[in-house]
Amino acid sequence: MPRVNPIDTDYFKDERKSADFTVIGKTVQRSDALGHVTGRTEFFEDRSFPDLAHVKIHRSAHHHARIDSVDCSEALRVPGVLRVITHADVPSNWYVVLRLIGIEPNDEPVLAEDRVLYKGEPIVAVVADSEAAALEGARRVKVTYTELPAVLDVEEALAEGAPVIKQAGTNYFVYEGHHARRLRFGDVEQGFAQADHVFEWRYSSAPIEHAPTETTGCIVVPQSSGRLLIHSNTQAAFFTLDNTALILDRPFTDLQVKGGTVGGGFGGKVDVMVEPLACIAAMLTNRPVKFVYTREEEMQVSSPRAAERIYIKDGVMNDGRIVARKVMLYVDAGAYSRHSPYGTTKACAHLPGPYTIPNVYADCHCVYTNRTPSSAMRGFGVTIADFALESQMDRLARALDIDPLQFRLINAYRDGDMKAHRKVAEGTALIEVIQRAAALVGHELPDEFRVLSSSTPREA
Amino acid sequence: MKIVNLKVNGVGKAFIAKPETTLLLALREQLGLTGAKRGCAQGACGSCTVLLDGEPVVSCLVPAVTVDGSDVATVEGLADGDKLSHVQQAFLDGFATQCGFCTPGMIMSAEALLDRNPNPTRDEVAEAISGNVCRCTGYEPIISAVLDAAERARL
Ligand code: FES
Ligand code: FES
């Protein structure tokens, strides 16, 4: 049953070359589908190795606590347990995955040292002959704690007098000396003063777990050359290779990552969570080692999409023009940075949405709390911001009694407009997309809106 | 420890199982049939679905020692050489796979459905795969592919 993928060739005719669209609009068989339907696709866990050892983790029982003692003696007595691994066994324990693109400081330990910042944080890794023995060993590790006050809300984390949970001294990521990723364009207060109406609403979202059907994992196989071969389901083979090498304090060339077959990722498999410990276990035991999350671990400790809280305040005119927009945005990074400093920057880059607004002010905060660290997930930074922005657009349209599509067309950016980031908009197509969508669902637009185009100059 | 005899995809197999060895791990680690996947190991995702005496089961919950003498069908046994089963071919043509991790389990649930009901409605297909989690496709192409397979079988 072939699929039909119609392309609308009416729009942007003059920009189209005849050689374009040799693939888009055609049905092209996936190169991996035959393997999928026959069961022959090789996922990392489908490989078997003689003498395979297994890693399981003892994790923090508290959201925020000082570690007073760690006792592995009982774990080591479990038949089949080969080794325990603590932070002392990790050559370079502190890291931040984004250091590869210049993000600082290293704020996360591979294994906790004297403190845990979230429930489920790894403290001790146990290597054993079998999965069952590794699990039993991990269960037998004894940790004593002194509980510390936990911060579980982004605005509470930033409030005066909040307990500072991060070594760096602030509960927020510092962007070039600032408390937030900032956007400043025009004069937002003057915009509010000139507006016919000012509206402010608040939006918030919960963390979202990717829940891939295949849990995060890898198998590391020591090679006779001394190199380590990592079979991984990472979505980011080179991120994994580089970060793992830095954690192991070994040259990049000592590692080889084989990946690319991912049983669902959605952004959840771009952190570097299992490979470093599996490599250390393989080095210490000189055996192939598997470290794969259980479903419980995938749900509880793999990084979800960040929870966000977003306040949007808009100044609007009776004719539908938005003249000022102020956004206070809070990304809950959880206990550690992972990819959130970048996600927060993306959120800021996305403001004020695809609309031309002369006065814009935004502070986008990447906030640390004692919750599970969040990280990448499909369009992170942008997706929740869009939910807030477009909900806001609908509410504004309703408040002004303007059709919501017309309201968007009035404010849609056009070629030549100056965006809040001081870049001139080009190649815009929002107007055409709205017009086409309106036609497809039978939403009538008056002539003046039907004749608009992205290249129609905006009246001064 | 016990010796377990199974007929797997029509071929007799014997292996030694501990009491805690699941049918899934026996297939994957002892018989080398890695088509069935481990997505949860707790009966919640369906990635490990195989047919046990013709009935779909989540093999991660079946102790191997309890099924001695049974007939097991896995995704590896469906194609006849290069010739795919109707369900496999319909999944391939209908873009019913993305990452492919749920696919073997999904296909076995679909095969079981079409074996007992060659003429299912859309709702019956949805019901038949309700124990199989797919996080990629949104299910619609899968349901369409199963209906398409039923139609191909009628031709
Ligand atoms: S692995 Fe058996 S149901 Fe999930
Ligand atoms: S195709 Fe990825 S889970 Fe179904």
Automatic annotation (TrEMBL), chain A:
Keyword annotations of the record: Molybdenum, Oxidoreductase
SMART domains on file: Ald_Xan_dh_C (SM01008)
Record keyword Nucleotide-binding present: no
Aldehyde oxidase/xanthine dehydrogenase a/b hammerhead domain segment(s): 38-149
Transmembrane segments: none
UniProt KW Oxidoreductase keyword: yes
UniProt xrefs under SUPFAM superfamilies: CO dehydrogenase molybdoprotein N-domain-like (SSF54665), Molybdenum cofactor-binding domain (SSF56003)
GO molecular function, one term: oxidoreductase activity
The protein's name: Aldehyde oxidase and xanthine dehydrogenase, a/b hammerhead domain
Classification lineage: Bacteria, Bacillati, Actinomycetota, Actinomycetes, Micromonosporales
From TrEMBL, chain B:
Record's protein name: Carbon-monoxide dehydrogenase small subunit
Keyword Magnesium: no
Record's keyword annotation contains Metal-binding: yes
Organism: Paractinoplanes atraurantiacus
Family annotation (Gene3D superfamilies): 3.10.20.30, [2Fe-2S]-binding domain (1.10.150.120)
Keyword set, alphabetical order: 2Fe-2S, Iron, Iron-sulfur, Metal-binding, Oxidoreductase
Pfam family, one: Fer2_2
Residue stretches making up the 2Fe-2S ferredoxin-type domain: 2-78
Highest taxon in the source lineage: Bacteria
Database matches in InterPro entries: 2Fe-2S-bd, 2Fe-2S-bd_dom_sf, 2Fe-2S_ferredoxin-like_sf, 2Fe-2S_ferredoxin-type, 2Fe2S_fd_BS, Beta-grasp_dom_sf, Diverse_Oxidoreductases
CDD domains listed in its UniProt record: fer2
Molecular function GO terms recorded: 2 iron, 2 sulfur cluster binding; metal ion binding; oxidoreductase activity
